[in-house]
DNA sequence: GATAGTGGTCAAGCTCCTTGACTATATCGT
DNA sequence: ACGATATAGTCAAGGAGCTTGACCACTATC
């Protein structure tokens, strides 16, 4: 019980820290939700529909999100190599820079834990957490 | 880095499980966000403004949330004992029943961890997580 | 080659939250 | 005591982000 509450509170705090750090590095026009999109977009093989599935929203909502990220210069659309209906959504250089900032912020945020748990402890904790959410990082959606 | 991702994913998954369980017990007109409000309301001494601070939203938004919960029968407003401007927001019996359902769901969701970590391990993990978010459970807000 | 399925877009509407303005009560300073 | 300032709450209007529904273009299946 208390563990659940602590986990949710920690996740909320972690999200805010990451976001604050990303904003501080000059990416002021993003919200925390965009980070979850970037995780999927990072592989370079995502379509808008893939993104919709990953985020747990409709494909229309995903399309609007992509529009916004294109307008702000974080991603661009490219023709899909094998499917003329689809369009790949890939990160621009700015998008990759933002991704690096978020990764740095994440590493920074968990540094105290890493020091306390040690490398093996972190890996073990990671595996336990992953066991709960095997599908990878989806948008929390509350 | 991976730890952050795993933590966020676990929190999202945990939220969905708790919500699904609460809905399954007959509280179908609530969203996960309401749970964060119930945490603050449980103490019985909360005003709408207290709730706003706890959730990180404006007092107007908190007031609308309270209106909704009153309409659905989960809380009721009472005059504040010492401040004629303020009104206490307290859980009804239905509200308390829902809180118990959520607590059960939380305990259920972390049972596998409890078995694996042991009582001391859970407490230690709890403390580490709490160290990151000392303010208690606030709404994640992404 | 007809038929059903999938990727994407357009349009309308809804929900929840915001900002701004306002009233009533409380608190503080002198 | 009393005026100035701060706080609890409400009303109103607007906006961001999501939804549903309809639709077109292309793909896959038989």
Overview of the molecule:
The structure is a homodimer of 142-residue chains. With 142 residues, chain A is mainly α. The first copy, chain A, has six helices and three strands, in the order H-H-E-H-H-E-E-H-H. Chain A has a three-stranded antiparallel β-sheet. In chain A, strand 2 (75-79) and strand 3 (87-91) form a beta hairpin. The model of chain A has no long low-confidence stretch (mean pLDDT 90). Chains A and B meet through helix 1, helix 2, helix 5 and helix 6 of A and helix 1, helix 2, helix 5 and helix 6 of B. The first copy, chain A, binds a DNA duplex (30 and 30 nucleotides) through helix 4.
Keywords:
homodimer, 142 residues, mainly alpha, 65% helix, globular, DNA-binding
Q: Roughly how many Å apart are the termini of chain A?
A: 19 Å
- Helical content of chain A (DSSP H or I, runs of 4+): 55-70%
Rg calculated over all Cα atoms of chain A: 16 Å
Query: Which assembly state applies to the chains in this document?
Result: homodimer
Roughly what fraction of the amino acids of chain A lie in strands? Answer: 5-15%
């Amino acid at each position: 019980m208390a563990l659940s509450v602590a986990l949710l509170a920690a996740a909320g705090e972690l999200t805010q820290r990451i976001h604050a750090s990303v904003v501080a590095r000059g990416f002021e026009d993003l919200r925390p939700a965009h980070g979850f999109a970037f995780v999927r977009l990072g592989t370079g093989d995502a379509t808008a529909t893939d993104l919709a599935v990953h985020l747990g929203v409709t494909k229309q909502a995903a399309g609007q999100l992509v529009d916004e990220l294109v307008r702000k210069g974080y991603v661009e659309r490219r023709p899909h190599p094998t499917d003329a209906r689809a369009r790949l959504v890939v990160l621009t250089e700015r998008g990759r820079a933002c991704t690096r900032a978020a990764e740095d912020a994440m590493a920074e945020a968990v540094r105290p834990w890493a020091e306390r748990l040690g490398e093996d402890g972190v890996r073990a904790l990671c595996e336990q957490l992953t066991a709960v959410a095997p599908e990878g990082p989806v948008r929390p959606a509350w």
